Amino acid sequence: MINIFEVTETNDMIEKENLDVRTITLGISLLDCIDADIKLLNEKIYQKIYQEAKDLVKTGEKISREFGIPIVNKRISVTPIALVGGAACRTIEDFTGIARTLDKVADDVGVNFIGGYSALVSKGMTGADELLIRSIPMALAVTERVCSSVNLGSTKIGINMDAVRLMGEVIKQTSENTQERDSFGCTKLVVFCNAPDDNPFMAGAFHGVTEADSIINVGVSGPGVVKNALSKVRGESFEVLCETIKKTAFKVTRVGQLVAQEASKMLDVPFGIVDLSLAPTPTIGDSVADILCEIGLEYAGAPGTTAALALLNDQVKKGGVMASSYVGGLSGAFIPVSEDQGMIDAVLAGALTLEKLEAMTCVCSVGLDMIAIPGDTKAATISGIIADEMAIGMVNQKTAAVRIIPVFGKGVGESVEFGGLLGHAPIMPVNPFSCDAFINRRGRIPAPIHSFKN
Amino acid sequence: MKKTIITVIGKDTVGIIARVCTYLAENNINILDISQTIVQDYFNMMMIVDTNSTTVTFMDMVDALTGLGNEIGVVIKCQKEEIFDKMHRI
Fold first, then answer.
1. For A371-380, what is each residue's pLDDT tens digit?
2. φ and ψ at A448, to 5 degrees?
């Protein structure tokens, strides 16, 4: 039988080390809503999401009370809207109308974000894809809860550089359209290489076309738990270090598995995956950078950071796969800057630069995340940053992403406050040299040689 | 069997166990195991209880025991056993 020490350990993780279920994300397919009539399409989308998700928040709260674990977010992801709206949308305003519908239904069912205002364009863009992408700056300015993502490349296909160029402009425009709120729109916009179909985390969640009609995906998090466990093995060998991370990751993932199963049962929706990602929040003690410091670095960004992060990410995955039969592809460590107080401190101390962050993304689960850069950064430069990150994802056969915020009207030395889980960030300098001629080339980068495995 | 873990943490005082047990007895909740330690001067108790025969719902039990905890000046939590089982048993 369970003993008092085990109970205390679990409850200490929850109460003192910020162990939580970061999100229950309900994926909903909108493929059966497709209609050539824009009004009917909006109605069908609203009804389908409302019917599927009306009990989501209530269910999340019930599970939270039964097991005594916080479930921070309840969210929805939907089929990429470029596919759903293709038959009906003729203008940017048509697509923006769908964004408003998504925002309204998200508000009505009580979720804080809805993801899937997306297009998958790793090889080429259809007319609808391009229209949706061009509508993003307006859609993110007139909605609160809608998150947008665009998949620009993959290991199998290569990188669509025309879309990369366009996204640089779209990010700039989104920044300008939401300038009165420190370019807040860009925090809800992410571009991917090798985007997973079942990602429960925002802003990149969408319900892939390979998925069932609806599905529950759960994201658990607990950087504080890992840090605390590591503080007990200071000075020990790498073997002990790895073993400790693995055991902790196992325990955390098991909680996610339990919550996912319960939610699946209560909502009568199949269970998809558990994603164990060490996803930080601005709360003190809920930081991935602090784990890196606990492993032995003065600040995140110091020499050794990439190796420490590689080790951390790998052990988290190894612990996680033992704990659940269906572990999500992103599992590992997230390294957003504005959402992690340890990362912010590292930037302010001069230890962490954009280039070091890029190196770190080679070995961790996502990419350049929540990084504020000067508002006057050129669109082509943003595209260059995106292209670099996409190349890392493509060549390393991993998911890579960019969520970067050129803060309108602000420059290096200033900082930006997004509030809540999105946190605050010092504006980081960007390499000033031009890549215009590279970005202005037309076409796509071919798939790498190791993609020819057939 | 549906098992619930009740934990009580707080400053030690007379009658904590008695009052929790009274509530459980009144509601036909059977205690399977009790253990108690004093950690850093704090009273720390865990009970494993069987809720099969009770007529109160889990949520009502949570509310009642949380209220009782507030009266005594301790924190009482009720959690379904599965969260601990999942985390600590393979």
1. 999 999 999 9
2. -70, 160
Number of compact structural domains in chain B: 1
Containing structural domain, residue B17:
3-88
For this complex, say whether ipTM is above 0.95: no
Tell me how far apart the alpha carbons of residues A98 and A4 are, in angstroms, rounded to a whole number: 52
What CATH number is attached to the domain comprising B69? 3.30.70.260
* Partners of residue B78 on adjacent β-strands: B6
Q: Which residues of chain B lie closer than 8 angstroms to A8, CB-CB?
A: 7, 39, 44, 46
How does the average pLDDT of chain A come out, rounded? 94
Q: Do A1 and B32 touch (CB under 8 A)?
A: yes
d(CA A142, CA A148): 13
Structure tokens at A118: 């997306």
Q: Which residues of A touch B77 (CB under 8 A)?
A: 11, 68
What are the structure tokens assigned to A4, written together? Answer: 């008092």
Task: Return the structure tokens found at B45.
Answer: 């108790």
Residue B85: its chain A contacts at CB < 8 A?
A: 2
Strand A189-193 vs strand A424-426: parallel, antiparallel, or unpaired? unpaired
Contact A255/B at CB under 8 A: yes
Contact B83 A6 (CB under 8 A): no
- In the numeric block, the tokens 């759903």 are attached to A84
Contact, A152 vs A386, CB < 8 A?
A: yes
Q: How far is CA A453 from the centre of its chain?
A: 29
What are the residue ranges of CATH 3.20.70.20 in chain A? 21-193, 219-448
Query: What's the predicted TM-score (pTM) here?
Result: 0.93
Do A4 and B58 lie within an 8 Å CB cutoff?
A: no
Burial of B14 (0-12, 13-18, 19+ CB in 10 A): exposed
**A73-119 tens-digit pLDDT:** 999 999 999 999 999 999 999 999 999 999 999 999 999 999 999 99
A219-448 domain in CATH 3.20.70.20? Answer: yes
Smallest Cα distance from A116 to chain B, Å? 32
Place of tokens 């007895």: B25
What is the dotted CATH code of the domain comprising A21-193?
3.20.70.20
Interatomic CA distance for residues B48 and A9, integer angstroms: 16
Tell me the C-alpha distance between B19 and A194, whole Å.
58
Smallest CA-to-CA distance from A72 within A335, A420, A316 is with A420
Give, in order, the Cα–Cα distances in Å from A408 to each of A83, A144, A434, B24.
Answer: 31, 19, 20, 60
Percent of chain A with pLDDT over 70: 100
**Contact at 8 Å (CB) between B28 and B53?**
yes
Query: What does the alpha-carbon distance between residue A225 and residue A291 come to, in Å, rounded to a whole number?
Result: 10
Two structure tokens written together for A329:
């592809």
